[in-house]
Amino acid sequence: MMSTSLKWLLLLSLISTAHAENVFVTLEKDNALAIVDPIEGKLLKTVPVGQRPRGIALSPDNKHLYIATSDDNTIKVFDANTFKELGKLPSGKDPETFALNPAGDKMYVSNEDDSLVTVIDIKSKKVLKQIKVGVEPEGITVSPDNKWLISVSETTNMVHWIDTKKNTIEANTLVDSRPRAASFTADSQQLWVTSEMAGTLLIIDSQSKQILKTVNFDVPGITNDKIQPVGVIIDKDRNKGYVALGPANRVAVINAKTYEVEKVLLVGQRVWNLAFSPDQKRLYTTNGTSNDISLIDLESLTVTKSVGVGTYPWGVVAKP
Amino acid sequence: MNALTHVKTIQKNVIPLELRPIKLYCVQAMRSVKYLTLAPAIYILITLVFNLNGAQAAAKQTINIAYLTQELTPPAALSNLDPFIKEKGVIGAELGINDNNTTGEFTGQQFNLKKFIVPIDGNVNDTFVKEISSHFKYLVVNLSAAQLKPLADLPAAKELLLFDVGTSDDSLRNEECNRHVLHLLPSRAMRADALAQYMMKKRWTQWLLVIGTNPEDKLYADAIKRAAKRFNMKIIAEKTWEHTYDARRTAQSDVAVFSQTEDPYDVLVVADEQGQFGEYLDYRTWIPRPVIGTQGLVAKPWHKTHEQWGAVQIQHRFLEKAGRWMEEQDYSAYLAVRAIGEAATRTQSNELPKLKDYIFSDSFTLNGYTGTPLSFRAWDGQLRQPILLAAPRSLVAVAPIDGFLHPKTELDTLGYDQPESHCQWNK
Lengths: 320, 427
Known about the structure:
Helix content of chain A is 5%, strand content 52%. Chain A is mostly beta strands and 320 residues long. Chain A has one domain (4-319): YVTN repeat-like/Quinoprotein amine dehydrogenase (Methylamine Dehydrogenase, Chain H, 7 Propeller), CATH 2.130.10.10. The model of chain A has no long low-confidence stretch (mean pLDDT 93). In chain B, helix 2 packs antiparallel against helix 3 (39-50), helix 8 packs across helix 9 and helix 12 packs across helix 13.
């Protein structure tokens, strides 16, 4: 039996931990998850999660953490507070990237080797459908209005527009060479797609499925073939978008109205994925080969700190 | 965004082409208030335009690619470790066709590969003239330099675009260059430069050069000498490995004696393209020195130890299809077919002049799973590409090595750069 005061104490401690923002980073080569306090700018702890963890997402209620453990051929479900493993989802072979629908009850996984997207019902842990897409599907996202599921195939150079009700491809947009990541604007009106080999960002209109604008990047002192855009995100007010430039070791800040590149920020080596803080005042980057994450203050657009996290930081999410 | 930009982008990207007018009509209609009541019907029309099945139903544009090679006689085997591979290249081309056709399913294009494998006693030029030249515009050709030269000079060959996936010959890329021949494998000069860059980084500047007796070995040695000069390395001695059959001489005793020199050296560079003696050098030299070149640390466009930049995926796909690792000729044939696919998809055409223009344009980029976009050098048709420096079981480095700079692209620090090239298209 637990005394009432002890219960209160436990509850209080739970509330206090629940209020501190945490950044979760998957460490591909450490088989672990790094937990970072972004306010203090320090690594709190590292917990083992499974073999070769890459893609990561939080459930909309922030209670569950999903991690693709690629070499375990599954996506694991963890309690986002205790990091206790709660279950496994039937992701198919070698899962890397995946996306949740806004309600958080469906998951879509890219199966790179089989050119498939697997649709999973999270509650029943059942595969609902496998959708045939182009060669080597990578980037995957769902529009905030839940109308479109986007799968981007790297070798076919295509964005597939999949109807979330029918789970069938309704449209395809041909994009630049080796597309990697895709992100919708909060109003679902635009899809931003990065092309790693062409070094471009494409802004696509969700209604016409046509490319509205191709954004090129130019970093003084760096040859164009080093500019390889990967992660992309846009703020909720559609003021600015951010693109990780891979081996150019920089994050580009793009004006989401004029599509001009306003600034490039020097971060760690081979910057890969990006995440906002819940209040969108900060941006976090995983820097693949320098084994750290960069914290960026978005008001001043400056890199405030790098935090060493472990070997090959891959995916990142922030929990309020 | 105004209506004009809309129309422009649509013209660039609509799939399939036949449905363009309907599409234009829809978008313009939707912009007009008086057609608002038509919106649901228009929505259906739009879905049709992009519908996958719709694209499949439309007449497909076909792109026919020929693949020409000749059967090889198995060379004398040095060991039973590496089985003789009869067909290096074909499976790479087939994998490329599969990838092209997956894209083609969405864009309404169909790619076909027809293989011509000439028997050992056959004549490749005959096959080319009789069966290929009047039926195909794109030819992936996996032949030796001695065979490719006369074939490329045939008048009929000038009407095609040839993708050479079998030679590393520098003369074919310089004095003997042809505007209608693209070279997918890195040249010997590119490989030698890649090794030299790494040696320079390690400060292994004194080289002992050991050369086999085949003509190809001399060409490889020439490339090594060029690289040594280019990167200020010193070749302290040059020795030819004579193949003798004297029973008193074994590799164990022979190499130790052979590798003694007056001046000290940092590395032994071996030029033995057929692998007749190079493997015997490592661990048997008089002084302990690493072996690089055609054996030891090798310079290749592709290697089984390579797994970065998405390479694991294509290694898996190839292994599954072929039951063996991907060889450099397979990789080059894959890239050749993918280059045709990329150009056909982007131009939505199967016409040679359009595809060729696109391939040589600045917009052309090809993913080779090596971390840098690939393209063709406009001055000699050579594929610009990184070079892997690999030991038998580990990838040691990828050239261009960090720090070797170039005003346009660091890839052009490897091989003959534009000012050095002896290729003159308009001769």
